[in-house]
Design goal:
Ribosome biogenesis regulatory protein, Ribosom_reg, ribosome biogenesis, nucleus
């Protein structure tokens, strides 16, 4: 923008006056007031920016607490890292932004390919002892099950036995009753070829 452009409206020798303007409307004065208001607003923003920049170069403010902007930045970083990899390709083919930090994942530690036989033996024995622990045995043994926790999920058994129709339909089928629909499928009518 050139230096003269903001004053162009003030220096025009002919200016259109709105139809609803006052009798003493001065377009030059109006343009000058608008320009001065813009200049004042820009100056106020410039001073605010300078004060914020002079607030310190560290992450903490004068009172030792993190500055609000830095605290918000720390709060957003994990969310941003998650959103980067939430695509089908896990962010592998996405464009990187300028100044974007590399996402630090969890370091995977691999066991050496060759290790002593005693270590493998100990690991196998530990696995077997965990598989045969009392906690697992008590879940399988019906005698060890507490009285308030039945071993059979009754609702699931009824649903399976009645093919999803419920306990009432299971009772009708056991009693030999036809129930609703005449026992010929869902339609209840003749239906189909004979």
């Amino acid at each position: 923008m050139s230096r003269q452009k903001p004053r162009r409206l003030e220096e025009q020798w002919i200016t259109e006056v709105p139809a609803n303007a006052d009798v003493d409307f001065d377009p030059r004065k109006e343009a000058r007031d608008e320009r001065k208001a813009r200049v004042a607003k820009n100056e106020k923003q410039r001073l605010g920016n300078a004060a914020r920049a002079a607030g310190g170069t560290g992450k903490k403010g004068e009172d030792g607490e993190p500055r609000p902007r830095d605290a918000r930045k720390q709060q957003i970083e994990p969310t941003l890292a998650t959103s980067r990899i939430s695509t089908a390709s896990m962010g592998k083919f996405d464009r990187k932004l300028d100044g974007e930090k590399k996402v630090r994942g969890v370091k995977r530690k691999f066991d050496p390919t060759e290790h002593p036989l005693s270590d493998e033996k100990d690991a196998s024995l530990a696995l077997i002892s965990r598989m045969g622990s009392d906690a697992k045995k008590s879940r399988r043994d019906p005698a060890a099950a507490p009285d308030d926790e039945p071993m059979l999920n009754v609702c699931k058994a009824v649903r399976f036995a009645s093919k999803g129709r419920g306990g009432v339909a299971l009772g009708r089928a056991a009693a030999g009753g036809r129930g609703r629909g005449g026992g010929r499928g869902r339609g209840g009518g003749r239906g189909g070829k004979r």
